[in-house]
Amino acid sequence: MRLITHLRHVDLAVPDYDKQLDFYSGVWGLTEVASDDGVSFLAAEGSPEQYIVRLRKDADKRLDLIAFGAQTPADVDALAERLGTAGVQLISTPGKLDTPGGGYGFRFFDLDGRTVEISADVALRTHRKLEPKESVPVRLSHVVLNAPDITATRTWYETHLGFALSDTLSSPYMGEVMHFMRCNPQHHSLAIAKGPHTSLHHISFELRGIDEYMYGTGRLLRSGTRMIWGPGRHLAGDNTFSYFLDPHGNTVEYTTELENLDEDTWHPGVHDFSQPEVTDQWGTANPMNELIAKESFNDPDRGVFIAPPI
């Protein structure tokens, strides 16, 4: 039974905290809603989540954690018991959360040593409907993780957290390179990419529509932010993409129109990544190549099997 409902937020630790905060709260279009000494919580204007990105100042660049939602505290307890019984290493047991919006949750390490949080009863944030041409993120769309063994990581998320496989990217030369995973009808809230080490591949942010997505892409280009791939439209998920690098080399994406599936009838497909129309249906993006792929390998994560301090 699937107990996870959606992706809540992605938390990053960064050495150059002020530069990152300026980027995410400035040109990227998030809103700082709370802060403490060296910690900032950033919300999307159109999302009821209290925040979708947390930045924390640290000597090391790392992915602090990925947070998913559950429907009820009872579901949180059930997941904690399920994981504990299966031998998954828990970082904390279910209890009250002291982050914005409160709630009830716990943390644990996934197969590759990333910290994952599951929570319920987090207060909803007052949000609004974005206006036409308003090119800031509506919500957090999905997160993609690099893993040395993508089949093992995919199986772990299916077995322990109830994620379902939506589609796979493969190629004649590299084999399977990405698994798209869902926890609701959205084509993917999580994807596992083949990488040389455990790290963050990219974080994706949903915009209001195609027009807003293009306005946002243009704003980032005019700001001098480096775009590594796009604009285009993927085949798997049918979503648009523009990939940029944040000031610390994390890949972040503007997207829109990610496919919603009929889960009762959907059957996962395998798409040949070496075919240009698979990576970009429109043919407008620069061709995918090894240099673009290496950018999204990111630096090896310094936080593997080390819980964040907050």
Automatic annotation (TrEMBL):
Gene3D superfamilies: 2,3-Dihydroxybiphenyl 1,2-Dioxygenase, domain 1. Pfam families: Glyoxalase. Residues 6-121, 139-257 form the VOC domain. InterPro entries: Glyas_Bleomycin-R_OHBP_Dase (IPR029068), Glyas_Fos-R_dOase_dom (IPR004360), MMCE/EMCE_epimerase (IPR051785), VOC_core (IPR037523). PROSITE patterns: VOC. It comes from the Bacteria. This is VOC family protein. It comes from Actinocorallia longicatena. Keywords: Metal-binding. The keyword Metal-binding applies.
